[in-house]
């Protein structure tokens, strides 16, 4: 099969893969940013029990939670340009990265909305009533009382979602985006040092998640008590 | 100065308030008594619209609100006339004692931070918590939390403070410290409406006692008269059950 195992390649590939971390992190960051916005919008009709929109958001969540992200990626990458053709938009030449970011954003949006809904529900109703009783408006009570506490509750889940989506990005290669996994696979196939390439790849994913995890843990500890005020 | 008229409220088919009329004068301390399920807490919560009455008119001072026709702004205005002390304290858990008291002043009343701080510290000292300004609710006992709750209500300088069973969630040994704070502010002439199960306290502090049952006011009057010579049979039964036998006190 491959060439004889040679440890020096592990180090060599590691260095070669480093610059690609940027692209992987770009996908993660954009997906999380889109996910937060979408997740909030999707959580709203559930929290405020808005009749029709509530149904729509439930369908959205079931779809993105209930199907593999790889399939979602294919559906968007191959399906969306066809759909856009119908309204005379030519998406055939759009970079695959756009579709990847869109898919991952919508995917994490489904999970984010569940996170937001649960976190907001965890702030007891009594505090909202107290906020009304001191004369706050609904938005004031939400921003000043509910949100900071919900944020603290959501943070551990949020950390998990970030780490999970970091690893999900390895599937972007299947539509031809040259992120970490794509780059490593190419190196592996060209040089036939497969194991070495995948060891370097695993090491890089591990280090990036480890650093992210640590950073998020620090943030968690700060926010635990004081909510947003500590940021 | 506070007048409720024809307040009605149902939860589904269950009518909780069947037309309540109540007048409270400035500086008066009104205690609302009654068995559980009599609608007393719901009535209190209707006064600041935490519960929306189905019909009736609420007026506090010169502000009048008809429950059948009003906008969001009216509710907002109504709520600014009163403050509430809750059974479960309901302090903002991510804020210190001081920040809890300042919150309404800064956010709602637009008082400057420095002034709000000064006023809040004075109030916390008044309720005996001068040493706990920077403690979070989780670091305070129930009695201390409730005293912060009272300071938070006082800070707004409202026309009336509504107390919803302020000592019901407390350990017996902590009830005293909260009652003495309420007694102290009652003496300062602040208008208060208190839903309570503390009969002795109601008798001592209130100028006016209201007995509710089944969503109506059964009887009301001066505490001495109502406690000693209740006219209605329902009141007599209630008082007999909860007050200790004559000649025997705990």
From TrEMBL, chain A:
Give the record's GO CC terms. Answer: ATP-binding cassette (ABC) transporter complex
Protein name as it appears in the record = Cysteine ABC transporter permease
Tell me the Pfam families matching this sequence: BPD_transp_1
Residues in domain ABC transmembrane type-1? 17-216
TM ranges: 20-44, 56-77, 97-120, 141-163, 197-216
**PANTHER family in the cross-refs:** L-CYSTINE TRANSPORT SYSTEM PERMEASE PROTEIN TCYL (PTHR30614:SF45), MEMBRANE COMPONENT OF AMINO ACID ABC TRANSPORTER (PTHR30614)
Location, primary (coarse class): membrane
Similarity field: Belongs to the binding-protein-dependent transport system permease family.
What SUPFAM superfamilies does the annotation carry?
MetI-like
Q: Which GO terms describe its biological process?
A: amino acid transport
Q: Which UniProt keywords apply?
A: Cell membrane, Membrane, Transmembrane, Transmembrane helix, Transport
TrEMBL record, chain B:
Q: Cellular location of this protein?
A: Cell membrane
* Assigned keywords, A-Z: ATP-binding, Cell membrane, Membrane, Nucleotide-binding, Transport
Q: Name one GO molecular function term.
A: ATP hydrolysis activity
Question: Start and end of every ABC transporter domain?
Answer: 2-239
**UniProt xrefs under SMART domains:** AAA (SM00382)
Q: State the annotated membrane topology for this chain.
A: Peripheral membrane protein
Task: Tell me which domain of life the UniProt entry assigns to the organism this sequence originates from.
Answer: Bacteria
Question: What are its GO cellular component terms?
Answer: plasma membrane
InterPro entries named among the record's database cross-references: AAA+_ATPase, ABC_ATPase_HisP-typ, ABC_transporter-like_ATP-bd, ABC_transporter-like_CS, MetN_ABC_transporter-like, P-loop_NTPase
Q: Which residues cross the membrane?
A: none
Protein name in the entry? Amino acid ABC transporter ATP-binding protein
Question: Which species is listed as the source?
Answer: Paenibacillus oryzae
